[in-house]
Amino acid sequence: MISIFTLSFIRYVLQLNFTWLVNSAAHMWGNKPYDRKINPSENLGVSIVAMGEGWHNYHHTFPWDYKAAEIGDFRYNLTTTILNLFAKIGWAYDLKEPSKELIRKTIERSGDGSHLKHGFRAMPEEVPMEADENSNLVE
């Protein structure tokens, strides 16, 4: 009985700390590829630990997107995977997300230029984007 209580307590403490990590680290450290004027940032470490909840710059820029992240290379997001599974079996529906064109325009207008850093290429090929030597987006 003591071991069950101990494991439950440890799980609860870890869950609370991961939640607080998202609400602190993902709002302070990382890149801001979608909106450089807000505090939330993209944080890979937080996203891995919190199963995909570390992409806060995107989430706060496009709050209606069910994914809460722009899925692409190196983007770990277990939460979206589960939501997609629920959509396939009919438990989730009317999943909203912004158009690729809106994402591209937002990156160009408000981003800090870090969208293409670290090997990310999350934008589809039909919306070509390149970066110059200063990491500024150009068409």
TrEMBL record:
Annotated GO CC locations: endoplasmic reticulum membrane
* Keywords (A to Z) from UniProt: Fatty acid biosynthesis, Fatty acid metabolism, Lipid biosynthesis, Lipid metabolism, Membrane, Oxidoreductase, Signal, Transmembrane, Transmembrane helix
The answer to whether UniProt assigns keyword Calcium to this entry is no
- List every stretch annotated Disordered: 111-139
What domain of life? Eukaryota
Report the leader peptide range: 1-15
List the transmembrane segments. none
> Per the UniProt entry, what are the Gene Ontology biological process annotations, in alphabetical order?
unsaturated fatty acid biosynthetic process
The way this protein sits in the membrane is described as: Multi-pass membrane protein
Its family?
Belongs to the fatty acid desaturase type 1 family.
Q: What is this protein called?
A: Fatty acid desaturase domain-containing protein
